[in-house]
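Duplicate of #3305? Posting structure anyway:
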């Protein structure tokens, strides 16, 4: 019984988080078209592994939208292939996880939402950008 109640609680909390994310839109920085093209090419090597209703994943997705980044996402909860990639290559099934692919065979797997956001801001943020809604 306790297991069912926890599952129900997790379901409703997850749906509430998704509703809040939908209800409260993020602003975004403005990018010139040339800068957008450059950033798009740089983000081709990034993949975010996530669970849709995970609050830390929502936090990272909101930052991605704010920075107007084109980053591929994979649902490690519903996609067994993505889950296996995360487990085999990243070493554990924990989300959010940002996979940073490199030319050499060693990819970087970044697991903490605060670290991921810091990485995105350092590489793709603009200090002098104008915020738009």
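Output from current build:
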């Amino acid at each position: 019984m306790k297991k069912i109640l926890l599952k129900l609680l997790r379901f409703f909390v997850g749906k509430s988080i998704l509703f809040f994310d939908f209800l409260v839109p993020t602003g975004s920085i403005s990018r010139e078209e040339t800068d957008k093209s450059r950033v798009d090419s740089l983000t081709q090597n990034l993949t975010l592994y996530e669970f849709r209703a995970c609050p830390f994943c929502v936090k990272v997705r909101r930052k991605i939208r704010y920075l107007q980044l084109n980053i591929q996402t994979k649902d490690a909860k519903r996609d067994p292939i993505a889950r296996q990639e995360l487990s085999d290559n990243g070493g554990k099934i924990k989300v959010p996880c940002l996979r940073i692919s490199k030319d050499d065979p060693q990819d970087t797997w970044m697991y903490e939402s605060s670290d991921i956001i810091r990485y995105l801001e350092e590489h793709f943020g603009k200090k002098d950008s104008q915020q738009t809604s």
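Confirmed duplicate; merging threads. The radius of gyration is 16 Å. Residues 31-125 form a domain with the Glutaredoxin fold (CATH 3.40.30.10).
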